[in-house]
Amino acid sequence: MLVCLSSSAWAQKPTPTKPERRPPQQRPENPSKTVPVKDSTATVERLRKLFHLSGDQVFKLRPIVDERNRQLAQLQEQGGNAQSRKSESDSIQQGFQSEFRSILTPDQAAQFDKEILVHPGSFR
């Protein structure tokens, strides 16, 4: 005698469940975002190699890069419209380039001026 046992679990198809819909989260009108200050190590190392900076020049460069990065992070936190942020960012960058150029030797400064003309956005 052959007995056939079947389970009702196999015979029934599970009913799909719909995911719960959640109301969209509302963002605060003025979110206070904290932008981390970019680490200066990579920038300092890149400039050290590119311009063959001395140890003394690297020592002077690090606080200049740190200050530039702090100012850019602060600008990003403030928000505002894109045009004003771009203008302020360009101003910060020009100040950085001027300070950086002041620690270079005349030969390095000439190389820097050439690099700025060829790659205008490369010192950001």
Describe it.
The structure is a single chain. This protein is mainly α and 124 residues long. The chain has a domain at 35-118. The protein has helices spanning 8-11, 41-51, 55-78, 82-102, 106-118. Helix 3 packs antiparallel against helix 4 (82-102). The radius of gyration is 29 Å and the shape is elongated. The model has no long low-confidence stretch (mean pLDDT 80).
SSE class: mainly alpha
Amount of beta strand: under 5%
Overall average residue pLDDT: 80
**Shape assignment:** elongated
How do the SSEs run, as a string of H and E?
HHHHH
What percent of the residues sit in helical stretches (DSSP H or I)? 55-70%
The count of strands amounts to: 0
Instruction: Point out poorly predicted stretches.
Output: none
Largest sheet: none
Number of alpha- plus pi-helical segments? 5
Rg is 29 Å
Distance between the termini: 85 Å
Quick take:
The chain has 124 residues and is an all-alpha fold. Helices cover 59% and strands 0% of the residues. The model has no long low-confidence stretch (mean pLDDT 80).
Summarize this structure as a short list of keywords or feature phrases.
single chain; about 120 residues; mainly alpha; 5 helices; elongated
Per-chain topology:
Elements: H1 8-11, H2 41-51, H3 55-78, H4 82-102, H5 106-118
